[in-house]
């Protein structure tokens, strides 16, 4: 008996006449004769042709949607449409039954909302098979991009005692009996008695530790889980998401932008080259979905065209100040169509503003730089104007912010002064400040939200559909 061959390889095979062993899950079984079998190696199914007259009726009954089966048969040229080869079954074994009365995933169209409720089974649909193969490719491409450039993959801690952004949106980590934590004399929770001897939380960003690595290894990147307890029930936020955070010594903000743009293009190209079939499928899916929308809300480009467009064009680079001017003069702002009016310099941009710039005004990815220091983090390098910092955000169509980064403040006095102004305790970040005391140098970095990248490349509309098991307010199922 031959060894099991995966369906992707089988469909590409020209060696008809040979016996093969193929295993997978039944998608459909038509006319007691044609099994569409899928094993997740590709979006396409292999057709298994059953000689039902010479097959036990009891066995035929067990070939149901969702069942796992093993088939030995001859690979033959297919007469049917849509496939070049098929397998003429000689022997079929049921590995795992699937009761058709109870199996939640019927061979029909299910809504994405319903599939989210059965996330343990949704991998078995064409859409989610494609999404997670693309996600896999993008993750691999991220590593390949940085490895090719000599970056060191650095593992920053998951449990930390610092809140990098100072935003306080953290998940606490404790070993206390939460109904009865030890208290100090003054009645506060006594974290000295906790596991780490201090209050700790799940990381919101690996950046500060990443910078420490860059101050010796030159170029590092992290790629790990990040946790934010922000109560944001949006299509772009998760409580647990994956972030890629490169930090580069001797980079200024322009080097930083160049690297970020090159990385995005590299990984998108990698997916286009290696996941052609999946992206074509997802393009079709999106086109179908958009047919439900009124004409003026449909995108001008298909998913495939959008991805190609992103590779072929330079991202638009402009300052926050220039962006505010454009937004202030924009038709939706004048007609009061924005939920948040753009009035003066200094306000933070809302997602609707970012998307206007990208989707309506420039019609391409945009890099915004030099934001007001008040709306950005303490570690961003202060510009000479005294008002702005060397920040850069990359905005993508349909997504808004996909990357947030900056040149970091390497001057100790400036950094300490900013921390004092905002009230960030310097003693807690003594180790971070040490890198400004010993061999400080210009450096820069950014954070890419991995799921936002996957959203863009798959054309999906909700971030909960591009991570296997999404974590969001009131949900930690699976
Ligand atoms: P936003 O304004 O969209 O909430 P942010 O300014 O909080 O983003 P950063 O702190 O700069 O984001 O994080 C870097 C990147 O991480 C963002 O550009 C985005 O791609 C991603 N990101 C941030 N928060 C989330 C989240 N809750 N879920 C998924 N991705 C996120
Ligand atoms: Mn945020």
TrEMBL record:
Gene3D superfamilies referenced in this protein's UniProt entry, alphabetically: Bira Bifunctional Protein, Domain 2, Nucleic acid-binding proteins
Keywords: Aminoacyl-tRNA synthetase, ATP-binding, Cytoplasm, Ligase, Nucleotide-binding, Protein biosynthesis
A Pfam family the protein falls into: tRNA_anti-codon
Ranges annotated as spanning the membrane: none
Top enzyme category: ligase
GO molecular function terms listed in the Swiss-Prot or TrEMBL record: asparagine-tRNA ligase activity
Localization terms from the record: Cytoplasm
Chief location of this protein within or outside the cell: cytoplasm
Record-listed E.C. numbers: 6.1.1.22
Domain Aminoacyl-transfer RNA synthetases class-II family profile: 132-468
Catalytic activity: tRNA(Asn) + L-asparagine + ATP = L-asparaginyl-tRNA(Asn) + AMP + diphosphate + H(+)
InterPro entries in the cross-refs: Aa-tRNA-synt_II, aa-tRNA-synth_II, aa-tRNA-synth_II/BPL/LPL, Asn-tRNA-ligase, Asp/Asn-tRNA-synth_IIb, NA-bd_OB-fold, NA-bd_OB_tRNA
UniProt record similarity statement: Belongs to the class-II aminoacyl-tRNA synthetase family.
PANTHER family: ASPARAGINE--TRNA LIGASE, MITOCHONDRIAL-RELATED, ASPARTYL/LYSYL-TRNA SYNTHETASE
Record-linked HAMAP family: Asn_tRNA_synth
Quaternary organization: Homodimer.
Name the UniProt record assigns to this protein: Asparagine--tRNA ligase
Organism for this UniProt entry: Mucilaginibacter calamicampi
Lineage: Bacteria, Pseudomonadati, Bacteroidota, Sphingobacteriia, Sphingobacteriales
